[in-house]
Please model this.
Amino acid sequence: MEIIRAGKMGFCFGVKKAVETCYEVAQNKEAKKYILGMVVHNKDVVREIEKIGFTTLHEEEILQDRDPLEKGDIVIIRAHGTTSEIIEKLKKKEVQIKDATCIFVDKIKEILVEREALGDEIIFIGDKEHPEVKGIVSFGKKINIFKNIEELKSSSLDKEKIYTVLTQTTLNKEKFLEMKEYLEKYYSNAQIFDRICGATSERQEATRKLSRTCDIVIVIGDLKSSNSKKLLEVALAENPKSYLVQNETELDLTMFSENMKIGITAGASTPEDIIKKIENKIRGNFNV
Ligand code: SF4
Model:
């Protein structure tokens, strides 16, 4: 049996920074500390952060004024950001906002605001239910959101308007290229900004290569993590024996057998210690 890791996997730059922000803020023993939603899409990481003194706060609690926040409390904004409405509410409550929004997400927000101010209409490619997308589009006025090429084709875009096209950072690169080709063919009035995060495409490409050469692929990540689910999609396209596993307790050893080549990859919100625990569980039960 052999365990092979994908060339690129695990924590990305933005998530690493958000987790580090939590550990820095944890040094403050005076103020009450909160994280807005999951600081990253990984339950185990969130649990660890709660252990060092944070309470998870949900956006609905703030929107419905059911939150426990008091003046001076510290609230960390997660790597994938939040909405303008939440920021306004937090400011009114006079809490200390520690914004751990990734710079790549902030950059998309910045382009959106700039281009709208110039009079462009915005086309946003992404999942409107995803917190990152909800956050970014909340800073705009009228945004056309399309999840896939079918939605884009059935829309009635105006050939006379000027469009700026932006994307969710975790969008699948192939899906994006298909939509880009369509827009370039029919709408020369659309200026397209490819803002897919490099961390995502690098992990997708490394997973694709790995999945071709292994008997089985384990994608380690939270079931709610968009980029982990996309890694699973990429792996499944190459290898039907690809599975998403959250942590070592969920790893079913019956899917392995001796002499297998096991490919391991992990989403950008998966910490190294969960990856190691999974590898160690396999090593502890098989002859690797
Ligand atoms: S996946 Fe990319 S955009 Fe998202 S937090 Fe990580 S580095 Fe930032």
Q: What stands out?
A: The longest strand covers residues 261-266. Residues 104-192 form a domain with the Cobalt-precorrin-4 Transmethylase; domain 1 fold (CATH 3.40.1010.20). The two ends are 5 Å apart (CA to CA). The chain has a mean pLDDT of 94.
